[in-house]
Amino acid sequence: MEKTWNNKAWFMVLPVLVLVAFSAVIPLMTVVNYSVQDTFGNNEFFWAGTDWFTDVLHSDRFWDALTRNLIFSAIILAIEIPLGILIALNMPKKGLGVPVCLVLMSLPLLIPWNVVGTIWQVFGRVDIGLLGYTLAALGINYNYVNNVFDAWVTLIVMDIWHWTSLVVLLCYAGLVSIPDAYYQAAKIDGASRWSVFRYIQLPKMKRVLLIAFLLRFMDSFMIYTEPFVVTGGGPGNATTFLSIDLVKTAIGQFDLGPAAALSIIYFLIILLLSWIFYTVMTTSDAQK
Asked: Considering the entire predicted model, what is its pTM?
């Protein structure tokens, strides 16, 4: 019997395609258009080719911001992934503690990014902030506005507080999906706590860890709101990441051509690094 196809289903998908076109494709094409042209106003454009891309790639400002982004993302991943695994391993698997822990872990994720930045901006102030006032009372010279090290520590701790819960929830979902038969067999064999983690829990969490790794990398590499609210990219340019530099170029200086070229390069870097991470992690998993 020949199988028939019902093409009417495409009419159900059409509104989604139109929405995606307006929200993603059309703005992307606008950015591409600006990245290869120059304008002096009055809606008059002149072909610039790859000049803006060349200027961005030969700019020390771009490479400095990119280096800050990579360092920040590396620190965040090195802390949040192991910390999230550790917290998930110690969360209760049964009883009343389960919903309590899940709710507590979910609370930081519900706070908007700009509110998180405002909270830590006030929290770190020496005059009215609990953290700043406490450190000053202990004799620690803490000032995230003027000190580069303090600014970086504040942003890192803030991101850990805000996003470690995501890693915890993903790891916890992977742990609770492990059948009890694995643990019973390990108990019979006299396996240690480390052996259970190494040969049972960690392999079963690889998929969710891949998701957590990619999500946290992309979020940390695209971070904008929190450092903009807390430090404004300072002191100096110490916390000026690519996202902040892009906004300064597009809105502050109104250089639409360089900003468009920078945004495309920014997007391609995120896409390339995410693809590399995904390929490496899935390939190593398939070889085992």
From this structure: 0.87
